[in-house]
């Protein structure tokens, strides 16, 4: 398993959509003003730090399983699920913050629809397909923005629940088909990565559209959200950590 750090295919251009895609990609490529860039970098660095630890835990588990070290592999899978669920709590909180402020924002950012081809699991691909359909039915930028946030949140919740269930089977050694469970973990990790990359693009686009006078209040809102690092210290199990997001 390789940790993949790639961006969603929002820069792929198709006939008839070039102007829209240039607008979305420009939000990602262009530099943010200093204060906004500082907030974006601090948030994303926190997300990426936890994501890297989770990915390394999964990678180590897969390597240990390949060497026949099943006890250690199961322990590392449990750690990866714990880290993944705790990061998901923070991401879901950020999605809610973007959605709530986005409803009041005068100029919401343009968004691109989720792409089914950037997911591997059936649940995530179905959700992305639904978002793609709605994206072409809803013409207002605000409706598209809020709809994508909602579907991305639901997709992330499903991915975490499925990962947690597969990890529980593996770590407890009760999976009827352990090979299938391990394959599911890799697939769900891939889908989580896509959700994370989409979150980063959404956050940067949102910050670009956010009026400068609202930046301090928005930063305070993000700081008040459950932090993955604080949750890790507070919660002893991944199940309790993830339920804290409900």
Descriptive report:
There is one protein chain. The chain is mostly helical and 246 residues long. It has one domain. 74% of the residues lie in helices and 0% in strands. It has 9 helices and no strands. It is globular. The chain starts with 17 loop residues before the first helix and ends with a helix.
Distance between the termini: 31 Å
How many domains?
Answer: 1
Mean pLDDT: 84
Give Rg in angstroms.
18 Å
Number of helices: 9
Characteristic key phrases:
mainly alpha; 9 helices; 246 residues; 74% helix; single chain
Task: Describe the structure concisely.
The protein is mostly helical and 246 residues long. The chain has helices at residues 18-29, 34-66, 70-102, 122-137, 141-172, 178-209, 215-224, 228-234, 238-243.
Secondary-structure blueprint of this entry?
Elements (H helix, E strand, L loop, with lengths): L17 H12 L4 H33 L3 H33 L19 H16 L3 H32 L5 H32 L5 H10 L3 H7 L3 H6 L3
Helix pairs in contact: 2-3, 2-6, 3-5, 3-6, 3-8, 4-5, 5-6
């Amino acid at each position: 398993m390789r940790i993949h750090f790639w961006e969603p295919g929002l820069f792929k251009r198709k006939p008839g959509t070039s102007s829209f895609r240039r607008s979305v990609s420009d939000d990602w490529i262009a530099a943010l003003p200093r204060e906004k860039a500082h907030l974006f970098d601090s948030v994303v660095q926190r997300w990426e730090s936890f994501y890297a630890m989770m990915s390394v835990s999964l990678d180590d588990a897969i390597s240990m399983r390949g060497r026949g070290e099943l006890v250690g592999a199961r322990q590392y899978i449990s750690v990866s699920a714990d880290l993944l669920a705790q990061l998901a709590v923070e991401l879901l909180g950020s999605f809610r913050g973007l959605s709530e402020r986005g409803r009041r924002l005068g100029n919401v950012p343009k968004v691109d629809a989720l792409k089914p081809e950037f997911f591997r699991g059936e649940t995530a691909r179905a959700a992305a397909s639904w978002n793609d359909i709605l994206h072409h039915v809803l013409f207002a930028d605000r409706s598209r923005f809020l709809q994508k946030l909602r579907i991305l949140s639901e997709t992330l919740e499903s991915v975490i629940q499925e990962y947690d269930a597969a990890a529980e089977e593996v770590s407890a050694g009760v999976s009827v088909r352990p090979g299938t469970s391990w394959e599911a973990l890799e697939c769900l990790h891939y889908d989580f990565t896509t959700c994370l990359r989409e979150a980063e693009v959404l956050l940067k686009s949102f910050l670009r559209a956010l009026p400068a006078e609202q930046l301090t209040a928005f930063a305070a809102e993000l700081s008040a959200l459950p932090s993955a690092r604080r949750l890790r210290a507070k919660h002893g199990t991944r199940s309790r950590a993830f339920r804290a997001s409900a």
